[in-house]
């Protein structure tokens, strides 16, 4: 294992309800990343993120989630998010569609994956918690 860990922050900076990923990216860009950790602004990615996932040992995605009444930061179940793929190519297809397609896209096994979901208002302390969770998970995932 080469220890390549990638944090991929996804979302739309121009849409407040979908800007958690880019906002966490901005915080992590200023952080001291552990050796072997690469940071990417995945934008609205979807399948376009495939090259960023390939060749990684571990991928941590950061994305906004719709959790009315439950603001905060949580680790999401990758299989549950993948099950949300509907087959369309709209916003809902982004990360869920990528997760569902990954096993079909290569002969190699997909990397270990985690999703940091950010719900509710993007208060500074919420974004700080999301960035800290990404760094914690990246450090735990190092060989």
Separation of the first and last Cα atoms: 7 Å
Give the tally of β-strands.
5
Global geometry: globular
Radius of gyration: 14 Å
Spatial strand order of the main sheet: 2-1-3-5-4
Q: Approximately how much beta-strand content do the residues carry?
A: 15-25%
Sketch the topology as an H/E string, one letter per element.
EHEHEEHHEH
Looking at how many chains there are and whether they match, the oligomeric state comes to single chain
Q: What would you call the structural class?
A: alpha/beta
Show unreliable segments. Answer: none
- Nearest-integer average pLDDT: 86
Walk me through what this model shows:
- The protein has five helices and five strands.
- The chain has helices at residues 20-29, 50-53, 78-82, 94-105, 124-140; strands spanning 5-10, 37-43, 58-65, 72-76, 112-119.
- 31% of the residues are buried.
List keywords for this structure.
alpha/beta; five-stranded mixed sheet
What's this, in brief?
This protein has 143 residues and is of the alpha/beta class. It is built from 5 helices and 5 strands, in the order E-H-E-H-E-E-H-H-E-H. The N and C termini lie close together (7 Å).
Q: What topology does this entry show?
A:
Layout: E1 5-10, H1 20-29, E2 37-43, H2 50-53, E3 58-65, E4 72-76, H3 78-82, H4 94-105, E5 112-119, H5 124-140
Parallel strand pairs: 1-2, 1-3, 3-5
Antiparallel strand pairs: 4-5
């Amino acid at each position: 294992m080469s220890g390549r860990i990638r944090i991929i922050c996804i979302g739309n900076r121009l849409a407040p309800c979908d800007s958690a990923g880019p906002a966490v990216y901005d915080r992590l860009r200023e952080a001291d990343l552990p050796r072997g950790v690469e940071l990417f602004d995945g934008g609205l990615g979807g399948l376009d993120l495939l090259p960023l996932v390939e060749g990684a040992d571990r991928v941590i995605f950061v994305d906004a989630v719709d959790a009315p009444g439950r603001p905060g930061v949580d680790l999401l179940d990758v299989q549950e998010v993948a099950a949300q793929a509907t087959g369309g190519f709209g916003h809902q297809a982004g990360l869920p569609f990528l997760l569902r397609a990954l096993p079909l896209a290569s002969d190699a096994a997909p990397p270990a994956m985690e999703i940091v979901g950010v719900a509710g208002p993007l208060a500074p302390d919420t974004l700080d918690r999301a960035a800290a969770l990404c760094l914690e998970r990246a450090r735990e995932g190092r060989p």
